[in-house]
């Protein structure tokens, strides 16, 4: 066995003096895994082995681990079925009660990030703060005595509570968080001094915007401010951390984790690296848990970022894949791509809880990039932007960006003058940007002026700001914004076509066109087109708002509840199938007459995955029992075109280029043969012949690999006993024996994951890991598949409308969206048959057929879900949304 077919292991019970070649310590305790990632990094550099598996548990990191060009091609992965956590936090224990529900422990000065039991706590702040009300807890400021200032403010003349705080004095290390009236951007800086007499607070450094009267602020991180359970602060005079826990027992038994490190892992000049299945946690609000600098062609897939500042930042890093990561409870933002980070793919990520400390943030933000694809991400609960594309100057131009099929819910919750998708274009260039197929719902908008708070203020679904030019806005769904679904501010040659919008507040318009006076002549709009959109309003207000709109074409839109702008618009009713139930599919035949087409609802919030799942330990790099040059060529269309079936050329390419580019073998020749009877008859178990056929013929014939060897093994106990997780052996068995024995694949990996919350958390939509887990663990644990895709579709009409009876798409929807939305997964097919005798007769009582019937026909026909109860029985409550859950199934 060569080095490239082996791996190192890291475990919490490991030892850096061991070989690192065992997944667990041996019986006599003389060898086993490493204890640290740094030791594994050194070993990979020394040996040429490129894989490290990290076992489950928490790894407290005191310094950043940096990967460089010496680490090209390495893969750092979670051990299958386990959850390793890289933590930048210090666990503080030894808390003692000090009265009033407070507990204290000695430690060094703490910042704004602390968790107990993995749950982010709230730093103490001035004001009467209440969770769920973003206006609460902020004090209204007066400008400094010399006028609006970036370095000081005055407490409001009538603010007795804050006057008392200044009179008492604030401790060293207290911070202040400020917003100007527009709430465009907040800053968190130190308090340099206070003067109770003049009501003045002076900062240690300047903030972004000069603070005018009516702006807001709050002081942070003084134990005198602690009020509610779940809050903490630093007590400077005693050198202690003070916490008011919601669960004192948890604090005393587990301690609290204080974020100390800003960056856990850094790729600096590294390429071809894979980071997969890892958790990054407990980093400071002003840091980035993962950074890539001049690092290209890397894969960041299937990881979790929690209680971090910013999840990841890319600078000068191109051709990377950022896929299927989960980011939540972020002190700042999700993903930043900056300054020459080109050709990156950001897809199928889930980003939620954005801006839990700093508010001027985004789920995904670009500046100075080109060729970025942002596709199929689910972004929720952001204090400012969902997706932000910033061009401030010549160094931050963005071109050829595609933002497609993302789901963006509840953005702009604490700021104003922004959007769910926002693009700034101050360089006044043709950006060649596409914004299509996105699902945008509820865009807030919060600001202040001299009279108080302004709700739903300057918030937009899609905001093309300050000369953003050459943008196609197409096929998006936009609902519940502040001022407009789409706002073009000084831009030229933008096209807004085939979008669906629902307007519900009197201030809201579909389209707003406005020039930028401060930009002079370039701020005038020209040649913008708004055609073929579907607009439903419950307010009666015009769907347009123009402020020196320049040249434009706004016509051919399909309207309900509003008047047309001109004769080209069409008024109709019933634009959507059932908007009260959230079904916004087209319901009006007038749409087709205007050339309007249906939106691709099924693609919104998801994207196909491109990074292979984590291979089983021992599978090697490339995956499989041995490197197959033909399988390597078959894995890539460009290699197939260049080398054909020249195995030597394929091997040479991998050695010279492929490894450093991060290329792996994803094509499984035996699984390909097993997918087709003619190939099995022709080639048997000759994998090289199978790969050669695919290169020469199969790809052009549209053949794909449909056979899942691990699912096949998992379908039969005798195969699991015989082959374990050896997929090649499973495929070979099917080709040689299983097909003629009539064996089929009955194990459904995605349904298995969907049946168990712990598996869904660990594997997401990784079929391979699911198969490995069931064979290695789940079978012996007595786990079974309880999730039924058809039942899920029967219980969720909107999903069925989007995917029909496609079981795989139903499973993917549940795992990526439905589970966290709390969707029902059960459907009482027996009750449905009992209520519909004709269906029972037609299906012969088959429960699966009954569910399929309801999905395809019964719901549309308005069929009853249960028999009419006897009059002598008490009437029970109607099932929510017309859905019935099967007994014992949540």
What's the structural blueprint in terms of helices and strands?
Blueprint: E1 7-10, H1 37-47, E2 51-54, E3 57-60, E4 65-67, E5 75-78, E6 84-87, E7 89-92, E8 96-99, E9 102-106, E10 114-116, E11 119-120, E12 122-123, E13 139-142, E14 152-155, H2 160-168, E15 175-179, E16 186-195, E17 200-203, E18 216-220, E19 231-235, E20 240-244, H3 248-254, E21 256-259, E22 265-268, E23 274-276, E24 279-281, E25 288-293, E26 299-301, E27 304-306, E28 310-315, E29 321-323, E30 326-330, E31 335-338, E32 345-347, E33 350-354, E34 362-367, E35 373-375, E36 378-382, E37 385-389, E38 402-404, E39 407-411, E40 418-424, E41 430-436, E42 439-443, E43 446-449, E44 452-455, E45 459-465, E46 469-474, E47 477-479, E48 484-489, E49 495-497, E50 500-503, E51 509-514, E52 528-531, E53 534-537, E54 544-547, E55 552-555, E56 558-560, E57 570-571, E58 576-578, E59 583-586, H4 590-593, H5 629-634, H6 637-643, H7 647-658, H8 669-674, H9 677-683, H10 687-701, H11 709-714, H12 717-723, H13 727-738, H14 749-754, H15 757-763, H16 767-778, H17 789-795, H18 797-803, H19 807-818, H20 829-835, H21 837-843, ...
Parallel strand pairs: 1-2, 2-5, 3-6, 4-22, 5-23, 6-24, 12-19, 22-25, 23-26, 24-27, 25-28, 26-29, 27-30, 28-31, 29-32, 30-33, 31-34, 32-35, 33-36, 34-37, 35-38, 36-39, 37-40, 38-41, 39-42, 40-45, 41-46, 42-47, 45-48, 46-49, 47-50, 48-51, 49-52, 50-53, 51-54, 52-55, 53-56, 56-57
Antiparallel strand pairs: 7-21, 8-9, 9-20, 10-11, 10-21, 13-14, 13-18, 14-17, 15-16, 15-18, 16-17, 19-20, 43-44, 58-59
């Amino acid at each position: 066995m060569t080095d490239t077919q082996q791996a190192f292991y890291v475990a919490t019970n490991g030892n850096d003096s061991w070989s690192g070649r065992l997944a667990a310590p041996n019986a006599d305790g003389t060898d086993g895994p490493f204890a640290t990632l740094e030791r594994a990094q050194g070993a990979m550099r020394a040996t040429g082995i490129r894989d490290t598996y990290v076992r489950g548990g928490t790894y407290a990191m005191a310094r950043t681990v940096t990967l460089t060009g010496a680490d090209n091609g390495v893969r750092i992965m979670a051990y299958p079925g386990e959850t390793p956590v890289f933590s930048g936090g210090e666990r503080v224990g030894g808390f003692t009660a000090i009265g009033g529900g407070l507990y204290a422990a000695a430690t060094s000065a703490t910042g704004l990030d602390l968790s107990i039991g993995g749950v982010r706590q709230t730093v103490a702040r001035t004001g009467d703060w209440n969770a769920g009300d973003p206006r609460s807890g902020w004090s209204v400021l007066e400008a400094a005595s010399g006028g609006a200032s970036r370095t000081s403010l005055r407490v409001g003349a009538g603010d007795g509570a804050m006057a008392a705080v200044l009179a008492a004095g604030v401790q060293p290390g207290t911070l202040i968080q400020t917003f100007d009236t527009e709430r465009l951007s907040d800053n968190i800086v130190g308090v340099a001094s206070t003067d109770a007499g003049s009501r003045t607070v002076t900062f240690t450094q300047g903030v972004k915007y000069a603070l005018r009267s009516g702006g807001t602020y709050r002081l942070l991180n003084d134990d005198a401010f602690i009020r509610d359970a779940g809050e903490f602060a630093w007590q400077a005079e005693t050198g202690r951390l003070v916490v008011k826990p919601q669960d004192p027992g948890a604090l005393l038994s587990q301690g609290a984790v204080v974020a100390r490190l800003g960056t856990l892992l850094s790729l600096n000049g590294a390429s071809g690296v894979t980071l997969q299945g890892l958790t990054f946690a407990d980093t400071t609000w002003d840091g980035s848990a993962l950074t890539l600098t001049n690092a290209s062609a890397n894969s960041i897939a299937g990881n979790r970022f929690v209680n971090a500042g910013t999840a990841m930042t890319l600078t000068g890093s191109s051709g990377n894949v950022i896929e299927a990561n989960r980011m939540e409870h972020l002190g700042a933002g999700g993903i930043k791509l900056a300054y020459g980070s080109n050709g990156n793919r950001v897809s199928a990520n889930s980003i939620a809880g954005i801006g839990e400390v700093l508010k001027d943030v985004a789920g995904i933000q670009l500046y100075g990039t080109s060729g970025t694809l942002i596709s199929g991400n689910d972004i929720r609960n952001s204090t400012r932007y969902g997706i932000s594309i910033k061009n401030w100057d010549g160094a931050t131009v963005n071109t050829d960006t595609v933002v497609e099929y993302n789901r963006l819910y509840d953005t702009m919750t604490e700021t104003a003058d922004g959007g769910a998708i926002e693009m700034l274009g101050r360089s006044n260039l043709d950006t060649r940007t596409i914004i299509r197929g996105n699902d945008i719902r509820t865009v807030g908008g919060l600001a202040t002026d001299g009279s108080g708070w302004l709700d739903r203020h300057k918030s937009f679904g899609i905001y093309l700001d300050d000369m953003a030019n050459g943008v196609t806005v197409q096929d998006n769904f936009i609902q519940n914004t502040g001022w407009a679904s789409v706002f073009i501010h000084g831009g030229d040659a933008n096209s807004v076509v085939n979008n669906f919008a629902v307007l519900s507040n009197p201030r809201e318009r579909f389209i707003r066109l406005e020039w930028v006076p401060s930009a002079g002549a370039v701020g005038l709009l020209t040649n913008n087109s708004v055609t073929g959109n579907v607009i439903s309003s419950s307010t009666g207000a015009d769907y347009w708002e123009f402020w020196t709109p320049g040249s434009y074409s706004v016509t051919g839109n399909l309207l309900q509840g509003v008047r047309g702008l001109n004769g080209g618009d069409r008024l109709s009713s019933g634009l959507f199938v059932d908007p009260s139930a959230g079904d916004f599919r087209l319901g009006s035949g007038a749409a087709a007459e205007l050339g309007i087409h249906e939106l691709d609802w099924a693609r919104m919030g998801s994207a196909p995955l491109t990074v292979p799942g984590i291979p089983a330990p021992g599978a090697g790099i490339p995956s499989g029992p041995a490197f197959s040059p033909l399988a390597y060529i078959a894995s890539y269309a460009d290699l197939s075109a260049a080398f054909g079936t020249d195995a030597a050329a394929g091997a040479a390419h991998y050695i010279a280029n492929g490894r450093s580019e991060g290329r792996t073998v994803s094509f499984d020749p035996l699984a390909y043969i097993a997918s087709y009877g003619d190939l099995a008859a022709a080639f048997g178990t000759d994998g090289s012949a199978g790969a050669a056929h695919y290169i020469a013929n199969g790809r052009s014939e549209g053949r794909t690999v449909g056979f899942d060897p691990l699912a096949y093994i998992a379908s039969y106990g005798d195969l699991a006993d015989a082959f374990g997780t050896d997929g090649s052996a499973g495929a070979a068995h099917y080709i040689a024996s299983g097909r003629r024995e009539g064996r089929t694949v009955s194990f459904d990996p995605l349904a298995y994951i969907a049946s168990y919350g712990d598996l869904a958390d660990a594997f997401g939509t990784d079929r391979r890991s699911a198969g490995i887990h069931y064979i290695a663990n789940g079978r012996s644990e007595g786990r079974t598949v309880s999730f039924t895709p058809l039942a899920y579709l029967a219980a969720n009409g909107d999903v069925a409308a989007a995917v029909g009876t496609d079981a795989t798409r139903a499973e993917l929807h549940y795992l990526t969206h439905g589970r966290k939305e709390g969707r029902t997964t059960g459907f009482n097919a027996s009750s449905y048959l009992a209520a519909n005798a004709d269906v029972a007769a037609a299906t012969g009582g088959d429960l699966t057929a009954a569910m399929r019937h309801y999905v395809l026909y019964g719901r549309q026909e308005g069929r009853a879900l249960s028999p009419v109860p006897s009059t002598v029985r008490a009437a029970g409550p109607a099932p929510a949304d017309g859905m019935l859950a099967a007994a014992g199934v949540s």
